[in-house]
Amino acid sequence: MGVHSLPLVLAMGALGGAVVAMQAVTQFTGSVPLWVVGTVLVAGVLTELGPVLTAITIIARVGASIAAELASMRVSEQIDALYSLGRDPVPVLIVPRVLAGLVVLPPLVILANAVGIASGWITGLIFIDGLTSADVIYGMRFYFYPFALVYSILKAMVFGITITFLSSFIGLEATGGAEGVGKTTTRAVVTTTLVLMVLDLLFIPLLKAFPKG
User: Fold this and answer.
1) pTM assigned to the model
2) pLDDT tens, residue by residue, 142-193
């Protein structure tokens, strides 16, 4: 779940950071001080792009796999076999996946944050005339405060639990043979993505409750 997802997560983080920097080129050049690019970069990556892009990547790669695997087990009556042996599928099949999501998402998000900031930094130096590393560092220091990183990690933990739990739960509800497996996988990805965006929205008041300082 973690190691095999790392290349894609890093690629998404790098592209996200580059996009933020390129947006800064079009939005801020000539109208605000150049150091604002560093502020926008670290704020955007830490609070939004890092956690959200990583979570979406995990939904597409891991969530879909979990849903398909458990749906296949359901339609092939492997889940019923567990019940017949007196085993509850929740601690056997769901709990390990949820715990894995809880453990894996935070380090993936931290790495995505680092790569995204570095990518945006380099992109800004290349495409924004007059921008220096000193400007970027000043802008980052102007915004950064400890809770921003804690906020990013909290998001990662909640997203990790949500993705793995919903994918597992929806997968276990599959019916209808091979066609049902495909429909269940699609439903798991769509539902988890929508829930993820709602949770992301609900996190905003938490960030406002802890002002800089």
Assistant:
1) 0.89
2) 877 788 888 999 999 999 999 999 999 999 988 888 888 999 999 999 999 9
Tokens of 97: 């996946």
Round to whole Å and give the CA distance between 109 and 46: 9
Give residue 58's domain range.
Answer: 6-209
**Cα–Cα distance between 37 and 140 in angstroms, integer?**
8
Tell me how crowded residue 209 is: count the other CB atoms within 10 A of its CB.
Answer: 8
The 10s digit of each residue's pLDDT in 2-15 is 899 999 999 999 99
Q: Residue 121 contacts by C-beta under 8 Å, 6 or more apart in sequence?
A: 17, 21, 38, 41, 133, 136
How far CA 115 is from CA of 31, 120, 177, in Å, comes to 28, 8, 42
- DSSP letters of 93-154? IIHHHHHHHHHHHHHHHHHHHHHHHHHHHHHHHHHSTT--HHHHHHHHHHH--HHHHHHHHH
Domain contains 69: yes
The alpha carbon of residue 54 and the mean position of all alpha carbons in its chain are separated, in whole angstroms, by: 3
CB 16 within 8 A of CB 49: yes
Q: Is residue 1, in this structure, part of any structural domain at all? A: no
